[in-house]
Amino acid sequence: MNDTFMKEKPVLPLILSMTLPMVLSMLVNSLYNIIDSFFVAQISEEAMTALSLVYPVQNFINAVGIGFGVGINAVIALYLGAGDNKKADQAATQGLVLAMIHGVVMTVCCITMMPAFLGMFTSSKTVIELGVRYSVIAFAFTLIIIVGVTFEKLFQAVGNMKTTMISLMCGCITNIVLDPALIFGYGPFPEMGIEGAALATGIGQALTLAIYLVVYFVRPIRVHIRRQYILLSKKMVIKLYSIGIPATLNLALPSLLISALNAILAAYSEVYILVLGIYYKLQTFIYLPANGIVQGMRPLIGYNYGAGENKRVSQIYKIVLCMSGIIMVLGTVICLLIPGQLMGLFTHTEATIQSGETALRIIGAGFIVSAVSVTSSGALEGLGKGTPSLLISLCRYVVVIIPTAFLLSRLFGAVGVWNAFWITEAITAIISICVYYKAIAQSQLSQSTVK
């Protein structure tokens, strides 16, 4: 496959061809998140609370898979842009080996720690039991998730977004169909309750990986997994982790944030923990499509940067920023117009719905400005600038929001926590602009020095 189109095709059509398949697949993925939670909520409010408490650990697993995958993706794209196919194959092979090691370690650790982790946030034996039952099955598929994400990033690195779209959509649709069947025991399926939700998710993820593997062997892409590169090279491992670790931390920080906010909100009522959990399910419908645009942008920026096309890098960043902004505008409008109806999908308790309405309206105020930090962080990862990207995420998920939420909660209760979201997004947007353009200036100076 000739991937020089990444530096030759006009920028706007190029971005659309790379991002629209990912946006579509992310929309389906976000729909799965909402439907999955909807059916779990039909079991009981305790089941939904358990799912909310398990979510940070699930997010951490995804963060490690996707974050390290971003490192693999960026390194491959940079080498392809520079015309070094052997190094690209080496990065792909050793990236896969390391990803499999990550998967095995996380499977054991996450299943082992769950009872103690859940006990940190609730004293309800029912919630803890439901959370453990769900997580044991869900986390048994960790290796499959990690390897699937690795192949996703390989296909994206060469610009093959259609395969990624088809694989993700097939997995998500399978999950959506199996959810009610396995939870409530429709047709030939046994009634499994909350375990059925976990199993449906795992089967969908296994199907996604199976499609990647079939396509990889039937229609080989430009990058290959080669036996000769299996033995790890210190230089390549350092390069992969130099991008992968910051990218992983970028994605793992929301888990830390959710756990910290759960601890703050637990002092007031478990209702607010449920509201926060529902919000994080709903916000995937906004942020996953935006993430789809960023996923399409990363290999484009990496390839063009590796090829010395700095003007195109700038054009790609600005167009993607506008596209992300449009999605965030839509999210803001939805949260302002129908917050009660959205909360009503997951609970019928009037007090919870009213608390959720307030939360969605306040948090939604920060969506539009968050496009700046989301786009800047993704662009920096595409450039191989993992540390500046991590700095943005630290501000967004730890440095600003946690102390702000704590202080405001002492003044205004749970409402103070919701206000911390938009305040943080505004501050982080300003920091993001400064960090991004400083990193770009340093990169261009480095390139000109090499020349």
UniProtKB/TrEMBL annotation:
<keyword id="KW-1133">Transmembrane helix</keyword>
<keyword id="KW-0050">Antiport</keyword>
<dbReference type="InterPro" id="IPR050222">
    <property type="entry name" value="MATE_MdtK"/>
</dbReference>
<dbReference type="InterPro" id="IPR048279">
    <property type="entry name" value="MdtK-like"/>
</dbReference>
<dbReference type="Pfam" id="PF01554">
    <property type="entry name" value="MatE"/>
</dbReference>
<feature type="transmembrane region" description="Helical">
    <location>
        <begin position="240"/>
        <end position="265"/>
    </location>
</feature>
<keyword id="KW-1003">Cell membrane</keyword>
<feature type="transmembrane region" description="Helical">
    <location>
        <begin position="60"/>
        <end position="83"/>
    </location>
</feature>
<feature type="transmembrane region" description="Helical">
    <location>
        <begin position="319"/>
        <end position="339"/>
    </location>
</feature>
<dbReference type="InterPro" id="IPR002528">
    <property type="entry name" value="MATE_fam"/>
</dbReference>
<keyword id="KW-0812">Transmembrane</keyword>
<comment type="function">
    <text>Multidrug efflux pump.</text>
</comment>
<feature type="transmembrane region" description="Helical">
    <location>
        <begin position="390"/>
        <end position="412"/>
    </location>
</feature>
<feature type="transmembrane region" description="Helical">
    <location>
        <begin position="12"/>
        <end position="35"/>
    </location>
</feature>
<feature type="transmembrane region" description="Helical">
    <location>
        <begin position="271"/>
        <end position="290"/>
    </location>
</feature>
<protein>
    <recommendedName>
        <fullName>Probable multidrug resistance protein NorM</fullName>
    </recommendedName>
</protein>
<feature type="transmembrane region" description="Helical">
    <location>
        <begin position="163"/>
        <end position="186"/>
    </location>
</feature>
<feature type="transmembrane region" description="Helical">
    <location>
        <begin position="198"/>
        <end position="219"/>
    </location>
</feature>
<feature type="transmembrane region" description="Helical">
    <location>
        <begin position="95"/>
        <end position="118"/>
    </location>
</feature>
<feature type="transmembrane region" description="Helical">
    <location>
        <begin position="418"/>
        <end position="437"/>
    </location>
</feature>
<comment type="similarity">
    <text>Belongs to the multi antimicrobial extrusion (MATE) (TC 2.A.66.1) family.</text>
</comment>
<feature type="transmembrane region" description="Helical">
    <location>
        <begin position="359"/>
        <end position="383"/>
    </location>
</feature>
<keyword id="KW-0813">Transport</keyword>
<keyword id="KW-0406">Ion transport</keyword>
<keyword id="KW-0472">Membrane</keyword>
<feature type="transmembrane region" description="Helical">
    <location>
        <begin position="130"/>
        <end position="151"/>
    </location>
</feature>
